[in-house]
Amino acid sequence: MDRIAAVRVLVDTISVFQKGLEPAKAIKAALSRALVPYYPVAGRIVETSPGEPEVACTGEGVWFVEASVDCSLKDVNNLELPVVLPKEELIPFAPAEVKEEDLIMMMQVTEFTCGGFAVGTRLSHPTPSTRLPLSSMDRIAGIRMMIDLILVFQQGVQPANAMRAALSRALVLYYPVAGRIVEPIPGEAEVDCTADGVWFVEASVDCSLEDVNNLERPLLLPRKDLIPYAPPDVIEGDLAFMLQVTEFTCGGFAVGIRFNHTVFDGLGAAQFSKAVAELARGHACPLVKPVWCREAIPSPPKLSRRHAPSPAGIDFETSVFDISTDQINALKNQFCRETGQKCSTFDVVTAMLWQCRTRAISLGPHADMHLGFAANARHLLRGLLPQEGFYGNCVYPMGIKANARIIAGSSPVEVIELIRAAKTRMAAMFLDWMMGYADDPYEVPLEYGTLVVSDWCRVGFSEVDYGWGEPIHVVPLNDDHNFIPSCIYLEPSKPKQGVRLMTRCVQKEHLPAFTEEMKQFVQN
């Protein structure tokens, strides 16, 4: 197992001790004695043949550093995360002429004025260097795109340092994310586990969050200042994940995330983001163990080959509407009174949005109106996929078609019933698609009469906590994707309750009518 083709990385840990008497001297002597029976650890990793690493027992020893700092452990909060001291002062680094990846172990003892000390260790840890196939859902050409968003936090202490360290640790378990997407055969994308890493950017702006309205829409800062971009010589479509931390003068910060939809669906990208946050908060490992398992997803005979449309297209207007919990519950109660059944928040909000938009754009009574939404399909593959940990694509695009006159003229309860009826058909439709009996569900009409909604309320981005609390809100940033009318459901900015709709679904000439329809619906 040691010789599984791998890329060697050093995993860093810091152990903190309240007191000690000349600890560096004692540890150095003990380490020398330990290296007698553990003599291979004092050697170097060599690779005499490609893919055949071995240990050369050279007796060169473990790189050992003694250090001290002019402060007490209390002054630096006992090195609790996020660590106040720079990482470079607490863990050992070899000089430039030494290849750190050839070392098996490095150690540093840092003594504090209070008598306490910290032991920083760096251990060689291989991550597999292989190519991993993507699932049939990952390889759907239409989702080969970057999804951009920002998480906004009110406060943090050196968040970039904490997140960089946590990201490095997370990539040991999520090693495919540090690789690159390749396509050796057209249409057969896979992940090459190169350990090239995640593109990480540290940034700062000379203003407070209050100065820019907490990054509420419309953004008062350019999008390019908030999310990471790779240099021209790097193909962004080959990257799995990118991260930028932008710090504000008030102590708040924004985390700009760009994830490749080929590697993650929304739940998967949020799972990875929460794993990084858990490590930043001090957890020894992520609460959910990641699972690749892409081969477990069956390949339907009719797999979509439609490529992602060009971002340019119809010029949609961005609008934000906050729907309160009281307004949602009022319609839920109405539905229950009239049908004797319950409906979900998604049902209520989607029916309201679809009806308001249909009335506003007024395509004519005989026009076909299409509604699409991505439904999580993990529960339909129970027994094939693990109960938790899978972070690849596992969604089924549900579609509903109805006459514009019916959508515009029906009661809200009747539109909710249309949506609920489609959801009940999902399991059968998914099975038919997997068996090749159904048409490609990804062939959604790319026209103005179509509306696609995405529910991010329970995806998990709003639960990301790096140690200073959850984000005050989540801001999707794919404003340049203008190929289809869309809306994303989000949690509103704290402390509001309910659902926030970020819409890009009407052209400028229809925006006043759409806004008025939404206001009337909420008021009624």
Automatic annotation (TrEMBL):
Member of which family?
A: Belongs to the plant acyltransferase family.
Source lineage: Eukaryota, Viridiplantae, Streptophyta, Embryophyta, Tracheophyta
What is the name of the protein in this document?
3'-N-debenzoyl-2'-deoxytaxol N-benzoyltransferase
InterPro entries in the cross-refs: CAT-like_dom_sf (IPR023213), Plant_acyltransferase (IPR050898)
The record ties this protein, via Pfam families, to: Transferase
The family database entries (Gene3D superfamilies) matched by this protein are listed as:
Chloramphenicol acetyltransferase-like domain (3.30.559.10)
